[in-house]
């Protein structure tokens, strides 16, 4: 059974789900949802997901959204013995903790910090320093943990790595250097991008397209001021 994935390529959460599925050898049937045309608010999609957010999956009639819930569902159902989402309760709890930390701290703060570049035409020097401080604190915690282990939840790659890696890629979209001063984070990120055979296939083109879109929006907003 092929699982329908409703997605938009540039979205880090969508790309995290796609990487998890690739890693677990789960086939997805990709269905692009055009946000620019408002397809996520059309009747057919609202019937599927009344919260009209992406990614969303439909697995033989079972509909689920929120990327981290989707990733853990896929692992639980189709790869219950995979170390990507370990069965040991303590190891799994660490993965779950980092997934939630990523959602509420890393991804959220990066998005809120960098959004004014696209939305308001601001440059990096004009961004909210308080939001920037929160990101630096999170990256320092991540950097310290990677000083004593190879991956974010231990010494084996897990769903947490894929989720955090996708979240950090949001900074690339804005051409904002966020991790180069955190040696362990940079080494981990570079290693995953190099070693994951599916990373470039899933991420390169969407990041490039999103980067061009952000630049065009930023230029428009700057010129209109």
Mind describing the biggest β-sheet?
4 strands, mixed
Head-to-tail CA distance between termini? 52 Å
Number of strands: 4
What order do the helices and strands follow? EHEHEEHHHHHH
CATH class of the largest domain: Mainly Alpha
* Anisotropy-based shape: globular
Domain GST N-terminal: 1-82
Protein name: Glutathione transferase
Pfam family, one: GST_N
Family: Belongs to the GST superfamily.
Question: Which terms summarize this structure?
Answer:
8% strand; Glutathione S-transferase Yfyf (Class Pi), Chain A, domain 2; Glutaredoxin; globular; alpha+beta; 8 helices; 4-stranded mixed beta sheet; 225 residues
What does this structure look like?
With 225 residues, the chain is of the alpha+beta class. It folds into two domains: 3-78, Glutaredoxin (3-Layer(aba) Sandwich); 89-223, Up-down Bundle (Glutathione S-transferase Yfyf (Class Pi), Chain A, domain 2), CATH 1.20.1050. Helices cover 59% and strands 8% of the residues. The protein contains eight helices and four strands; from the N terminus they run βαβαββαααααα. The chain has helices at residues 12-23, 43-48, 67-78, 89-119, 129-146, 159-173, 183-195, 199-223, and strands spanning 3-7, 28-32, 56-59, 62-65. A four-stranded mixed sheet has the order 2-1-3-4, covered by helices on one side. β1 (3-7), α1 and β2 form a beta-alpha-beta unit. The mean pLDDT is 94. Residues 88-210 form the GST C-terminal domain. Homodimer. Pfam families: GST_C, GST_N. This is Glutathione transferase. Belongs to the GST superfamily.
